[in-house]
Design brief:
Shape: elongated
Strand content: under 5%
Number of helices: 5
Radius of gyration: 21 Å
Order of helices and strands: HHHHH
Structural class: mainly alpha
C-alpha cells in the first residue's frame, strides 16, 4: 500500500506546471511584501549575479541527474525508465529550460537594476524559486537512480533451506 506522502510526491512529480504557479506566487508575495528593499544598485547587481550563478549550479546538477537517469543500466533503473520515460523527459526538459531561462532572466534584469528596482527584486525572487522547485525534481530522480543502483548491488540471499 502506498503511503500518503508518496502519493502526494507522485502527484507533484506529474504536475510540472505547479512549479511555475508556486514560483509566481512567491514572486507576487515578494512584490507585495517587499515594496522598497534597502538595496543599492551594487547590492542588486551582486544579488542578481548570485541568483544567476545559483541557477547555473541547478542547471549543472540537473544535467548530471538527467545523465545518470539515462545511463543507468541496472534492471530496476531500466524498468523505471521504460515505464516513466515521458515523465522523465518532460521533467528533464522543464528543469533544464527553467534553470536556463531564470539564469538569463537574472542576467537580463541587471540592465534594470537602477531603473526598476522593485521589478528586479521580484524577478530575483522568481528566478530563485523556480530553479529550487525544479531542482528538487531532479534530486528526486537522482535518488530513484541511486536507490535502484543500491538495490541492484545487494547480494542475493539464498532461499530458506538451501545451502549457499
Amino acid at each position: 500500500m502506498q503511503r500518503r506522502r508518496d502519493r502526494v510526491k507522485d502527484w507533484w512529480l506529474r504536475h510540472l506546471g505547479l512549479d511555475c504557479v508556486v514560483a509566481s506566487a512567491i514572486a507576487i508575495a515578494a512584490w507585495l511584501a517587499w515594496p522598497t528593499a534597502d538595496l543599492g544598485v551594487a547590492e542588486r547587481f551582486a544579488l542578481l549575479a548570485t541568483v544567476a550563478t545559483f541557477d547555473g549550479l541547478v542547471l549543472a546538477a540537473s544535467t548530471f541527474s538527467a545523465q545518470m537517469m539515462s545511463q543507468a543500466s541496472n534492471p530496476l533503473a531500466v524498468k523505471v525508465r521504460r515505464l516513466h520515460r515521458p515523465l522523465i523527459n518532460r521533467t528533464s526538459r522543464a528543469t533544464l529550460s527553467g534553470s536556463l531561462m531564470c539564469a538569463a532572466g537574472a542576467l537580463t534584469a541587471l540592465f534594470g537594476a537602477s531603473t526598476w528596482p522593485h521589478v528586479v527584486d521580484t524577478v530575483a525572487a522568481f528566478c530563485v524559486a523556480l530553479p529550487v522547485l525544479r531542482g528538487l525534481r531532479a534530486v528526486d530522480w537522482f535518488v530513484i537512480v541511486s536507490l535502484s543502483e543500491e538495490v541492484d548491488d545487494r547480494p542475493a540471499t539464498p532461499a530458506r533451506g538451501l545451502k549457499p
